[in-house]
Amino acid sequence: MGLYPFDKFTAMNPSHVIITGASSGIGRACAHAFAELGSNLSLWARRQDRLQELAEELTSRHGITVHTATVDVRHLAEVRSAVASLPAPFQSPDVLVNNAGLSRGLVPLQEGEIQDWEEMIDTNIKGLLYVTRSILPNMVNRATGLIVNIASIAGIQPYRGGNVYGATKAAVKMLSDSLQIDVNGTGVRICNIDPGLVETEFSQVRFHGDTDRAATVYKGYQPLSGRDIADCVIFAATRPAHVSIQDILITPTAQASVNLTDKRL
Predict the structure, then answer these.
(1) Hey, what CATH class is 13-261 in?
(2) Phi and psi (nearest 5°) for 198?
(3) How high does pLDDT run on average in the chain?
(4) How far is residue 75's CA from residue 63's CA, in Å, rounded to a whole number?
(5) Which is it for strands 16-20 and 40-45: parallel, antiparallel or unpaired?
(6) Is 130 a catalytic residue?
(7) Residue 122 contacts residue 102 (beta carbons within 8 Å)
(8) Is residue 96 over pLDDT 80?
(9) Buried b (16+ CB within 10 A) or exposed e, 51-78
(10) One of 130, 165, 218, 221 is an active-site residue; which one?
């Protein structure tokens, strides 16, 4: 029979999926994409009203089970409470999508705001660690599961003003690479995704609600959508058990690098 049983070559169909930062952008797009597969979802975010609206939409449209949790991943106690309240099938999900993350500010480091730094570090690094540490042991015990970490092109290519944000996403990339080694032999898989320019609320958050400035980021070319990233997540999540998609760098066609985008205004 060779190294793997025949059924190991069958495409996966995740039945239970946890998504952090699910109320908007990439996380929301992932929720829609997995719901279309018939996956049951546990959706985490800070904005309960948006989560509830999304849960009702997905339940009505796809007939799946949707669990929600109001969680700020920066706070370990909230993460632990959310994990403790998970329905049994989600205690060891088929897929965990670590999507919660943000950027604050776009200035040289010497002009940076300490509060912005702390929010990025606490969300993008510590929050990802808190969630992963809470879910991964059960995946290891079950000898299956996939963790998808949403990193960024900013974590592999620096740009002016992207200092601390880029450092946090470089940390995500390194954590993904380290996890590949830590879970080797357990049956658990890790996928790191590095998106380029994606039109979401990202820039509004970065610029502290300045919608006019945020809109200029996406003018003059066709940026990626949240669904483009969700499609990458789905691809990784539906590979046969012997296939691990370790890393994906995805950009708009107009974007050659973090600093070079063909804008034709």
Answers:
(1) alpha beta
(2) -120, 130
(3) 94
(4) 32
(5) parallel
(6) no
(7) no
(8) yes
(9) beebbeebeeebebbbbbbbbbbbeeeb
(10) 165
